[in-house]
Amino acid sequence: PAAAFVTALVFFVSAFYHITAPDKDIAKVTRVLDYVGIYLGLTVNQSADVAAVTNGFRDVPIETILDLPIACGLLLLFFVWRRVRTDGDVTWIEEDSEPVPEDRCTLGRPLFSRAHSDLHHGTARSSTSLILSAAYFLVTPVAIVTLGNLSPTVLGLQIASFSLLILGMVLDRALGFPDDLLRKGKLTCLSSRSLGCIFNSHGLWHVFALVSAALALTARELALQR
After folding, report:
1. What is the per-residue pLDDT for 176?
2. Long-range residue pairs from 95-102, CB within 8 A, at least 24 positions apart, any chain
3. What is the CA 215 to chain-centroid distance, rounded?
4. 196 Rama sector, left if φ>0, alpha if ψ -120 to 50, beta otherwise
5. Cα distance between residue 207 and residue 83, in whole Å
6. Dihedral sign, CA of 27, 33, 39, 42?
7. Sign of the alpha-carbon dihedral angle for 65, 66, 69, 72
8. What whole-number distance in Å separates Cα of residue 9 and Cα of residue 38?
9. pLDDT tens digits, residue range 73-128?
10. 3-state secondary structure the chain
11. Is the peptide bond before 61 cis (omega within 30 degrees of 0)?
12. HSE-CB of 152 using CA atoms within 13 angstroms
């Protein structure tokens, strides 16, 4: 129940942050709430997944249980401290956009291009979050022993969940898909001159994250039934 509640909370807080992201002053606060949601979600969900395949942490060393909460807590403290100590004028990014032809999407023209950035710590936050998301696979041998013939299904769902996170991150951070195509007017089905774009690359990442969470939840429920 706690993991399900926290998952819903993570997506709610994330949506709230993105709604307020274009406002320089409000986003300084909601960005911190987004950090809290992300690291709280990682801690509770990964711990729940480990508990599900170890019969409620039976015979599990205390350091194995505490590793993830401590790591998430330290990262949260660092990025909250950084956000508080760094002037908002330094982290505020407002990209300039060239005039958009009549038949193309207005991506980034007024709101998508405004937000508080992690700047040179952006890659550190993304990479550490990705590593923490893979914490479940440290107990793969235990999962195989505990789940028996169900382990291929559960592990397959977890692998698919993690792979979707990686794919979403690659599309958003590395390839910028579908942003470039939207700017060039090649995906008119996803855009409107008057209404703007349905979503950008980061919006696509959130879709992948939602499906990823659903797969992980399914894997956890199967493990609990076992």
Report:
1. 82
2. 100/183, 101/185, 102/193
3. 14
4. left
5. 27
6. negative
7. negative
8. 10
9. 999 999 999 998 999 999 998 765 555 555 555 554 445 667 888 989 988 998 99
10. CHHHHHHHHHHHHHHHHHHHCCCHHHHHHHHHHHHHHHHHHHHHHHHHHHHHHCCCCCCCCHHHHHHHHHHHHHHHHHHHHHHHHCCHHHHEEECCCCCCCCCCCCCCCCCCCEEECCHHHHHHHHHHHHHHHCHHHHHHHHHHHHHHHHHHHHHHHHHHHHHHHHHHHHHHHHHCCCHHHHHCCCCHHHEECCCEECCCHHHHHHHHHHHHHHHHHHHHHHHHHC
11. no
12. 1
Q: Whose CA is closest to 179, among 107, 90, 128, 78? A: 107
CB of 35 within 8 A of CB of 79?
yes
Q: What is the pLDDT of residues 171-220, one digit of tens each?
A: 988 888 887 777 676 766 665 665 556 677 888 899 999 999 999 999 99
Instruction: Name residue 92's beta-bridge partners.
Output: 116
